[in-house]
Design goal:
The protein is α/β, with parallel strands linked by helices. It is built from 20 helices and 22 strands. It has a nine-stranded mixed beta sheet with strand order 10-9-8-11-12-13-18-22-21, with helices on both faces. Strand 9, helix 11 and strand 10 form a beta-alpha-beta unit. 46% of the residues lie in helices and 15% in strands. About 2% of the residues have low confidence. The N and C termini lie far apart (87 Å).
Length: 605
């Protein structure tokens, strides 16, 4: 029925345009002498129109979404009519007389009537789809008048919830111009004034490729003006069709840290992982679980999930059941410090690639009362799994390390540095297993990290506790860290310590301020309280030790560190030390100092 109605309209448009052309030619007087010529010409043009519209694909488009592709089809159909009427005018003079001006006026009128009808229908439909009046819609200001901004304004024009009242953009050439009827009223610094002028309380960032500094500046202006801030997906997601432009979400602190999406060499990674049996220790942790999710993309033969926490193992199992039900997984509860269990795992499942992510990582908790447990889990656990991997002939062993292993001031960092040294010794020992180490800093949203803690404190009304006004940290997203681990493993030849590019360090106090603002509060409503550095905590983190050099790699976000050589006799001495009865914190620090001379434990009183 819809196609028949559209077809009838187009035939009617031919009649209107043909008659209108004669009326205009004869000053709105009906030309009686041309009556017979008009009828014959109309019959020919109706037949031509039927063929032309079908050929041009004019009935594929939906009038409710008439756009430029539909206009191009319309022009093609009208051009066929132009050719037809020219042919009539030239070759039918003996039996059909057509005034020359009609030859010009007719196609113009036909284009206007057919195109105008489609546009009018779209306008009417959009008004019906948006029955809410402008007074009921929330006024919103869009920051960014580029491609993303233009797409957003068009989409929000049909939204029953939002009304775009203005745009701001730092490109001075765009000032005063309009996008879909919305005016660019100034630069981003004018945002508070624009919000006041339109009494708007909502801002949408339409700058998916803007640097972090620009986003932070706009966030500060918007939150100072008391506006709620939203952002849109990245342009790559929009162009791929995975998400719609109007899928807005509140701005998160991750958006302001300037971490660009990472690209990895999928072909090399797939070569390493495709069809392989893979073991992930600590598979339910922050990094371990994301590694499992990333690994599933490369079609391994199976993934062995080893986890000490029953609940964490259950959660990652549920993820696979929902998202990768066809990928074989093995769910194993086990402790990496248990040599018998590790030998059993390798004997039964023969993993070819091992990612060792199991570790104790919380600095203050490991510093007092738990130092020996940190030694056992981080050093003995690494040694146990590494030996089992070597003895079973695994192809690769990848240790997940930390920037806290550089010039450590805490037990956790020192134990991770010794774990790195264990892998270096194993690489130079017997066997064919290749050992790699990957260091990175804090990951956003990981278990025990500062961001979930701040979110909880803000939700409770504050205060937000920061240890020191000048303390800073490196941050990256969990998916970014996991992907770079895979990239490092794929390019490693054995024995390397890969250092991830963590970007610029972030002051934790600034992080807290941004999170307070993004939550809709001011610092007078939720204050920041400084509590002093915790046991073993550094003011500044480092990614490379002073004596280390780095070498570039083919990947821009990975470098290779060259640490000092491992002391002779480390392996044998560690075996003896780890076999001793539990030691107190002082004895542990003394033992660690023996193997890590750069370790500088703080005076804990």
């Amino acid at each position: 029925m819809r196609s028949l109605l559209v077809f009838a309209f187009d035939l009617l448009a031919v009649l209107v345009a043909w008659a209108g052309a004669y009326l205009i030619r004869f000053n709105l007087t009906w030309p009686q002498t041309f009556h017979q010529d008009m009828v014959y010409g109309l019959l020919v043009l109706l037949a031509v129109q039927l063929i032309a519209c079908r050929w041009a694909g004019l009935y594929r488009g939906m009038w409710s979404f008439a756009s430029l592709p539909d206009l191009r089809r319309l022009v093609r159909a009208v051009m066929v009519s132009v050719v037809a009427i020219l042919a009539l005018a030239l070759f039918s003079k003996s039996w059909l007389l057509i005034p020359r001006s009609v030859v010009v006026i007719y196609p113009l009128l036909l284009l206007v009537v057919m195109g105008g009808g489609r546009i009018a229908w779209r306008i009417w439909r959009e008004s019906r789809l948006s029955p809410v009046s402008d007074a009921e819609r929330k006024p919103v200001v869009v920051v960014g008048a580029g491609t993303a901004g233009a797409m957003l304004v068009r989409e929000l024009a049909r939204s029953p919830q939002w009304q775009v009242v203005a745009l701001v953009d730092d490109d001075r050439h765009k000032r005063g111009l309009e996008l879909s009827g919305c005016r660019v009223e100034g630069a981003s610094v004018d945002l508070p004034a624009v919000l006041r002028r339109h009494q708007a309380r909502h801002v949408v960032l339409a700058m998916p490729s803007a640097p972090a500094e620009a986003l932070q500046a706009v966030t500060h202006l918007a939150t100072q003006a008391g506006a709620t801030l939203f952002t849109i997906p990245g342009l790559a997601e929009l162009m791929s069709g995975r998400v719609a432009i109007n899928v807005m979400r509140p701005v998160k602190i991750e958006d302001l840290l300037g971490r660009k999406s990472v690209r990895i060499d999928n072909d090399n990674v797939k070569t390493m992982l495709h069809g392989k049996r893979i073991l992930v220790t600590g598979a339910g942790g922050s990094i371990g679980s994301e590694l499992c999710r990333q690994l599933s993309r490369f079609q391994p033969e199976c993934i062995v999930l080893l986890e000490a926490s029953e609940f964490a193992l259950y959660m990652i199992e549920q993820w696979f059941g929902e998202h990768q039900p066809d990928l074989p997984i093995v769910r194993l509860a086990g402790d990496v410090k248990d040599p018998a269990r590790m030998a059993q795992v390798f004997a039964l499942h023969h993993p070819q690639v091992v990612f060792h992510a199991a570790a104790y990582k919380h600095v203050p908790l490991m510093e007092i009362g738990n130092a020996w447990q940190a030694v056992r889990n981080n050093i003995a656990g690494t040694l146990t799994v590494a030996r089992a991997a070597r003895d079973a002939g695994a192809e690769r062993f990848v240790l997940i390390s930390t920037d806290k292993a550089v010039n450590p001031t805490n037990v956790m960092g020192a134990t991770k540095r010794v774990a790195e040294m264990v892998c270096e010794v194993m690489q130079n020992g017997p066997g064919t297993t290749r050992f790699h180490i990957v260091r990175f800093g804090n990951v956003l949203g990981s278990t025990g990290s500062v961001i979930p803690k701040f979110q909880s404190q803000i939700a409770q009304g504050g205060p937000v506790t920061v240890t020191h006004p000048e303390i800073n940290r490196y941050f990256m997203s969990i998916p970014e860290a996991a992907q770079l681990v895979l990239q490092a493993a794929a390019m490693g030849q054995g024995g390397e310590i890969f250092v991830l590019d963590m970007g610029q360090p972030v002051r934790i106090a600034d992080l807290a301020r941004n999170m307070i603002r993004l939550s809709g509060y001011t610092e007078s409503e939720i204050r920041i309280e400084y509590t002093g550095l915790r046991p073993g905590e550094k003011l500044y983190e480092e990614l490379l030790a002073d004596a280390e050099e780095t070498l570039p790699t083919p990947h821009e976000k990975l470098r290779i560190a060259r640490p000092r050589s491992v002391p002779d006799g480390l392996y044998e001495a560690l075996i003896v030390w780890l076999a001793q009865a539990p030691q107190d914190d002082v004895a542990v620090r003394t033992g660690l100092k023996r193997w890590v001379p750069e370790y500088r434990p703080q005076n804990l009183g």
